[in-house]
Specification:
This protein is mainly beta and about 290 residues long. It folds into two domains: about 130 residues, Mog1/PsbP, alpha/beta/alpha sandwich (Protein Transport Mog1p, Chain A); about 150 residues, Protein Transport Mog1p, Chain A (3-Layer(aba) Sandwich), CATH 3.40.1000. It contains five helices and 21 strands. It has a seven-stranded antiparallel β-sheet, with helices on both faces. A seven-stranded antiparallel β-sheet has the order 13-14-15-19-18-17-16. Strand 16 and strand 17 form a beta hairpin. The longest helix is centred in the first third of the chain and has 15 residues. The radius of gyration is 22 Å and the shape is elongated. The relative contact order is 0.11.
Length: about 290
């Protein structure tokens, strides 16, 4: 198994072999699960959970193995072993061996791998070894469905829309794990950029999609177009206090993939800078 790329979401980065991709995911920063598959079948189901308590690796591994056994009647534990921060177990069935692994990271996140299709333990070990994770208060990478960026601490993914020709993701910022967010970020990646733009420039395209009530100023930084828009508050109380809604939009074209990327930030203070695609790297805060 050769690891050629990676996905990253909810504070951990996971390697992918050639041909694998993210097929489905559920959950949020605190807990969830996802499925990794190729064109023919699902291979691995991965679940994660964050906690300040140190988990019992043996108990976690046993629970994961029981779930696997329920999904594959007749499977039984054949072998298991533990290392300092991880454990592995093999469940043998009539159609082959499926392996389960668990790993606890120092930042407080625990990951559990289950092979959906029979495979080798060595392949699963490679995935476990190459996975990384970050703490709640650290910058986190996000790589999924063609989006590739890194955000400062406290940004949490709230939803993703992935359909033919469009990927749209929404993040909210919860500083110091507060209950209510203070900023919002939407990143859209649209196929056939030159068809979408037509004869219009990036600046003109952005301005054409502003709301009627917004007052905007625009600018340009190389290949990146920027529009700053303000509008009266949506409620009478905010208007009475002369509070405005503020948006900052950046747009650029990925020429190699013919994709139009729009970054939309909304908040009251501390706007998020443009996320630039650097050659050979992820989108990063300027």
């Amino acid at each position: 198994m050769t690891l050629v790329t990676a996905i990253a979401l909810h504070g951990f980065a996971h390697p992918l072999p050639a041909g694998w991709e993210l097929a489905a995911n559920w959950g949020n920063w605190r807990a969830g699960r996802l499925v990794l598959a190729d064109e023919l079948r699902a291979h691995v189901q991965l679940s994660w959970a964050r906690s300040s308590r140190t988990p019992d690796l043996a108990a976690t591994l046993a629970r994961a193995g029981k779930k696997l056994a329920r999904a594959h009647p007749g499977a039984g534990m054949w072998d298991h072993r533990f290392e300092s921060d991880r454990g592995f177990a093999c469940w043998r069935a009539h159609d082959g061996d499926r392996h389960v692994a668990v790993r606890r990271f120092a930042c407080g996140v625990s990951l559990v791998w289950q092979q959906v299709h029979p495979g080798s333990e060595r392949d699963l070990e490679k995935l476990v070894d190459a996975t990384t994770a970050v703490a709640n208060d650290q910058p986190a990478p996000w790589r999924l469905h063609g989006l590739d960026l890194e955000l400062p601490p406290w940004w949490r993914l709230e939803g993703v829309q992935h359909v033919a020709g469009l990927v749209r993701a929404l993040w909210c910022r919860y500083p110091d794990d507060r209950v209510r967010p203070d900023q919002l970020l939407v990143v859209r990646r649209i196929a056939c950029a030159h068809v979408v733009l037509g004869e219009r420039t990036l600046d003109a395209w952005l301005r054409a999609h502003l709301r009627r009530s917004e007052v905007a100023t625009s600018g340009r930084d190389g290949d990146v177009a920027m529009v700053e828009a303000t509008a009266p508050g949506p409620t009478w109380w905010r208007r009475l206090r002369r509070q405005h809604d503020r948006r900052r939009l950046h747009a650029w074209i990925e020429d190699d993939a013919d994709r139009l990327v729009i970054q939309e930030w909304k908040g009251s203070t501390g706007p998020l800078p443009c996320l630039l695609r650097l050659p050979g790297s992820a989108l990063r805060v300027a």
